[in-house]
Amino acid sequence: MRNYLRWSEIPYPGQSYPPIPVTPEAGNWPMFFIAREGQTFLDPFRNHITWRIKNPNTIDWASELQIVQQSMQQITPEQIRIAQMWAAGEVNKQIIPIVFQMMETYGLASTKAARFLAFYQAAINDAFVITWHFKYLWDVARPCQYDRNLKTVLMTPSFPGYPSAHAVMAGCTEPILSYYFPQEKNRIHLLMEECAMSRLYAGVHFKVDNDEGLSLGRQLGEIVVNLIRSQNI
């Protein structure tokens, strides 16, 4: 068992007090597809869920910090562009235009488009809630709290780092979009991988935040796809 630094206990560089948390209660908000019974999560078919995400006590955070430090030292203009592009507003702001482009390209009927968008946006809500549940449950520090001299591309958000919300959103998006637009599966995969990796390029997340966020998000997306498929519409 390894120990790790707690986000809520360490100031960001240039600050005297630990960061003020943003919506820490969001991890308890209602979800559309996932139910809770005490500490247990249930899918739409009432099956117990074991989330596919590592306990942070099993992660080598010193090695993760070295990856971030090396990434910041060797950052390229293209990586900076990717970091800034995916950080321009909510991550959904970057994904929704891709969604509408695919709907138009493949002529998704208006009725099916409405259902698809409803399922997708509801899934994103659940992805945020689950992400916030784990962020504040585990309270994992950000790279800049491990290395106060770290020069990041973007400002570090004011909530715990693990898992990355961008990565969970991207992971959740991938199976849902791939179900509706199987012809675009490879492109969708690459775009969502880029979205997650952008947070390492930004210097605000460890690589494992992104890797485990993708895993968690894909699991949720697969749960939603199983429900969609069961309705046979």
Quick structural overview:
The chain is mainly alpha-helical and 233 residues long.
Overall description:
The chain has helices at residues 61-73, 77-86, 91-105, 110-138, 143-146, 165-180, 185-202, 207-231, and strands at 35-37, 40-42. The protein is an all-alpha fold and 233 residues long. The chain has a two-stranded antiparallel sheet with strand order 1-2. It has a single domain, classed as Vanadium-containing Chloroperoxidase, domain 2.
List the helices and strands and how they pair.
Elements: E1 35-37, E2 40-42, H1 61-73, H2 77-86, H3 91-105, H4 110-138, H5 143-146, H6 165-180, H7 185-202, H8 207-231
Antiparallel strand pairs: 1-2
Helix pairs in contact: 2-7, 4-6, 4-8, 6-7, 6-8, 7-8
Oligomer description: single chain
Mean pLDDT: 97
Instruction: Provide the spatial order of strands within the biggest beta sheet.
Output: 1-2
Residues in helices, as a percent range:
55-70%
SS-based class: mainly alpha
Output the radius of gyration: 18 Å
CATH topology: Vanadium-containing Chloroperoxidase, domain 2
InterPro entries: PAP2/HPO, PAP2/HPO_sf, V-haloperoxidase
Domain Phosphatidic acid phosphatase type 2/haloperoxidase: 129-225
Protein name: Phosphatidic acid phosphatase type 2/haloperoxidase domain-containing protein
What labels would you give this structure?
single chain, 233 residues, mainly alpha, Vanadium-containing Chloroperoxidase, domain 2, two-stranded antiparallel ribbon, 56% helix, 3% strand, PAP2/HPO
